[in-house]
Automatic annotation (TrEMBL):
Region (Disordered) location: 587-606
Record-stated family: Belongs to the adaptor complexes large subunit family.
Gene: LOC113119957
All residue ranges annotated as the GAE domain in the record: 668-781
Organism: Carassius auratus
Protein name: AP-1 complex subunit gamma
Short name of any one Pfam family annotated for the protein: Adaptin_N
Alphabetical UniProt keywords: Cytoplasmic vesicle, Golgi apparatus, Membrane, Protein transport, Transport
Gene3D superfamilies to which the protein is assigned, alphabetical: 2.60.40.1230, Leucine-rich Repeat Variant
Matches recorded under InterPro entries: Adaptor_Complx_Large_Subunit, AP1_complex_gsu, ARM-like, ARM-type_fold, Clathrin/coatomer_adapt-like_N, Clathrin_a/b/g-adaptin_app_Ig, Clathrin_app_Ig-like_sf, GAE_dom
Keyword Kinase: no
PROSITE patterns with a match to the protein in the record: GAE
Membrane topology recorded in Swiss-Prot or TrEMBL: Peripheral membrane protein
One Gene Ontology term from the biological process aspect of the record: intracellular protein transport
GO cellular component: AP-1 adaptor complex
């Protein structure tokens, strides 16, 4: 039976195996026969046995015992054996194995062989698995073959030179002279290899850019020849002449024209010709056009040419192929900041892509739509985004809500529109918003004093309708507690008023307190709102007292503490209840706790001279009552000294004391160090706690770019003797323009008291590009200083 049939018969038997165990048995038997053939020496069957072993290797079974047989077959003088030997070397050997060094001399000899086919075998093997040592030894031979007259050998030698440059970048200068001369070749294979080689030389040795920029006219002529050439069946793909070579030339032109006016001017006409004459109905034409667009956007091109490139991407958005639509939106995302008006012309098409069934296309369309929002189109774009929010996949809701909030804050035409938009988002996707949304909305409501009545009426209706959206319920409870008197009056010009009784409001808050859907934080909002209503209603104070008393023994400690303190206000300090439960003062936009980590602002204090008579009377309590209030909070028996009265108004001592109740607490200085700053992302480290055996640090990420940073993750590694615990991060999206931060706490347990070091891997996406960097931290900042408390 012929040898080739035996290989076919083995394949047939293996494929006919019904179970994995039966297949393993067949493989083991065949491997035993192959080993026996290898031991018999030169019997003419070694190459066929190695071919069978390579098929076994393709199935995933061990075939390492055939490595030395590959070395022997490569040294053979027969072409049939040499071919199988080189194939086996490429499959079974790699640069990490010592056996690969044994074939270096054979490859060197075959590179000088008289047969071009033997030379090509050696070139392919070196380009596939050549190690750095092999590349250094054989680089002169490859440089010699680059000047050969045979185009077949020259093509393979070019690709082998590319592999050598990637393995040993310092050898790049050896191939620079030969690379330029290869551009005069007529063979497309050699031209393709030459363009790839020049591209690698420019990437690994930027010093050669000026030298190769002189070849831009030559590259332009080659490209023009491809664009205007007649039909060539050898190179034609879907009506495009050699699109692979065109794409490679365009990529090289992009590198040569970057930040260089002379090179850019030389290729402007060519790029316009390619952009207007290439048929985009086929995939090959779309690939050439896409590379043309990227080249136009990366060089110093003319403004008209950039508009043409954006229009090409706009046509891609209408393509039925989702992959083409995806790469189109990815490219538009990168240029939307520099060519905003040109991209705006395709806003309608981009918004339509939000309705696509593919989640990846939806995500790209969402990011691009958010980038297109401006003060001019805020109303129309927000309408489309809110429609998308109601139907978008769960994995996109968080990103959508974040983008809507940022856009509304930057471009809102009025405060009422801003509040309505945020309430719409909370009603639709309240469970997917960021943690800072509630305090930010509360701050916005407090500053819009003319909309307090409108807001409390609207939030009350939303609360009665649905209590499942926790963020919405928290804001509603806060507003009812602060402005419950406006709700009970039933007078509102901006919205149709609803007659609400005191019992109705308390019923709504009690429903929130008793609901299994309410989180502990939401119950805290509801309990505080109930307590605040005790100073805003008249007939149901006893009911409020009863509700608060019920939670004095609550299993939740936070809720229990609040209830106990509120009960103490009723029993022991009822004369102070009205002053303690006053409306919150208006807060600055940048006050602590109400922005995304910005602590530069302060809370506006109420000027006592501008208080109404009743409010001033409530604040003018004896100093001893202030001590009583402090005693309620900390239970201390130490007598407290009132602060000195202002010299300009000695009659307002107690009022100033009460207003300055928390004013003596100065913010503790926090020591942070910047450990990473790149691509607009800044990562700082802050030491929160440090003992002999434990260190607790917080990593703080902020974003100064114009786009949100997404998929932000941190990974940490420490020495083996140190125990590492990473808490859950506050999120994975860092808002643009420094409007937010992402924090993550790391606890290091160091029982052996070794020198602490930590390596952090930072991964994130920005404008469609994925970035990953590693940071080494050899020292940690000192922990936060204790707060400085001023005497009252």
């Amino acid at each position: 039976m012929p040898s080739s049939v035996r290989l076919q018969e083995m394949i047939r038997v293996i494929r006919s195996a019904r179970t994995q165990g039966e297949e393993r048995g067949i493989i083991q038997k065949e491997c035993a026969d192959i080993r026996a053939q290898f031991r018999q020496g030169d019997n003419g069957e070694r190459s066929h046995s190695l071919a069978k072993l390579l098929y076994v290797h393709m199935l995933g079974y061990p075939a390492h015992f055939g490595q030395m047989e590959c070395v022997r077959l490569i040294a053979s003088t027969r072409y049939s054996e040499k071919r199988i030997g080189y194939l086996g070397a490429m499959m079974l050997l790699d640069e990490k194995q010592d056996a690969s060094l044994l074939i270096t001399n054979s490859i060197k000899n075959d590179l000088s062989h008289s047969s071009q086919y033997v030379q090509s075998l050696a070139l392919c093997t070196l380009a596939c698995m050549g190690s750095a040592e092999m590349c250094r030894d054989l680089a002169p031979e490859i440089e010699r073959l680059l000047r050969a007259s045979n185009s077949y050998i020259k093509k393979k030698a070019t690709l082998c030179a590319v592999h050598i440059i990637r393995k040993v970048p310092e050898l790049a200068e050896m191939f620079t002279p030969s690379a330029r001369s290869l551009l005069s070749e007529k063979n497309h294979g050699v031209l393709h290899g030459a363009v790839v080689l020049i591209t690698e030389l420019c990437k690994h040795n930027p010093g050669t850019l000026d030298q190769f920029r002189k070849a831009v006219p030559e590259l332009v002529q080659i490209m023009k020849g491809l664009v205007t050439s007649s039909y060539s069946p050898e190179h034609n793909v879907a009506g495009i002449s050699d699109p692979f070579l065109q794409v490679r030339i365009l990529r090289l032109l992009r590198i040569l024209g970057h930040n260089n006016d002379t090179a850019s001017d030389a290729m402007n006409d060519l790029l316009a010709q390619v952009a207007t004459n290439t048929d985009s109905s086929k995939t090959a034409g779309s690939a050439v056009l896409y590379e043309t667009v990227l080249t136009i956007m990366d060089i110093n091109s003319e403004s008209g040419l950039r508009v043409l490139a954006v229009n090409i991407l706009g046509r891609f958005l209408l393509n039925n192929d989702r992959n083409i639509r995806y790469i189109s939106m990815t490219s538009l995302q990168k240029i939307v900041q520099t060519d905003h008006n040109a991209v705006q012309r395709h806003r309608g098409t981009i918004v339509d892509c939000l309705k696509d069934q593919d989640t990846s296309v939806k995500r790209r369309a969402l990011e691009l739509s958010l980038a297109l929002v401006s003060a001019v189109n805020i109303r129309s774009m927000m309408k489309e985004l809110l429609i998308f929010l109601s139907t978008c996949p769960p994995e996109l809701r968080s990103h959508t809500t974040s983008g809507i909030f940022n856009a509304a804050e930057r471009y809102s035409p009025s405060k009422r529109w801003h509040i309505d938009t945020i309430l719409h988002v909370l009603t639709t996707a309240g469970g997917d918003v960021r943690d800072e949304t509630v305090p930010n909305l509360i701050q916005l409501i407090t500053t819009a004093s003319e909309l307090h009545c409108y807001t409390v009426h609207k939030l009350y209706r939303a609360l009665v309708k649905d209590i499942s959206q926790q963020s919405l319920v928290q804001v509603a409870c806060w507003c009812i507690g602060e402005y419950g008197d406006l709700l009970l009056k039933g007078e509102c010009e901006e919205i149709e008023p609803v007659q609400v009784t005191e019992d109705d409001v308390l019923d709504a808050l009690e429903t929130v307190l008793q609901s299994h859907m309410s989180s502990p934080a939401t119950r805290g909002f509801a309990l505080t709102a109930t307590m605040k209503l005790s100073t805003r209603i008249t007939d149901n104070v006893d009911r409020i007292r009863s509700i608060v008393s019920n939670y004095s023994s609550c299993i939740d400690l936070e809720l229990q503490q609040r209830a106990v303190e509120y009960n103490a206000l009723f029993r022991k300090y009822d004369h102070m209840r009205a002053a303690v439960l006053e409306r919150m003062p208006v807060m600055d936009k940048n006050s602590p706790g109400h922005t995304n980590g910005d602590t530069s602002g302060v809370i506006k204090e109420t000027d006592p001279s501008k208080l109404k008579p009743v409010e001033a009377g409530l604040l003018s309590e004896p100093a001893s009552q202030v001590c009583d209030l402090l005693d309620l909070l900390d239970g201390t028996d130490t007598p407290l000294q009132p602060s000195p009265a202002p010299t300009n108004n000695p009659t307002t001592t107690s009022s100033a004391d009460l207003l300055d109740l928390l004013g003596g607490l100065e913010p503790a200085p926090v020591l942070t160090e910047t450990v990473y700053e790149k691509n607009g992302l800044s990562l700082k480290i802050q030491c929160d706690k440090q003992t002999d055996t434990e260190v607790m640090v917080t990593l703080i990420g902020s974003n100064s770019t114009q786009n949100d940073i997404t998929n932000f993750t941190l990974q940490a590694a420490v020495p083996k003797s140190v125990q590492l615990q990473m808490k859950a991060p506050s999120g994975n999206v860092i808002p643009a323009h420094g409007l937010g931060q992402v924090t993550q706490t790391v606890v290091l347990n160091n029982p052996n008291k070794v020198s602490l070091k930590m390596r952090i891997r930072v991964s994130y996406s920005n404008q469609g590009a994925v970035h990953q960097d590693t940071v080494q931290i050899d020292s940690f900042p000192s922990p936060t200083c204790p707060p400085s408390v001023s005497p009252l």
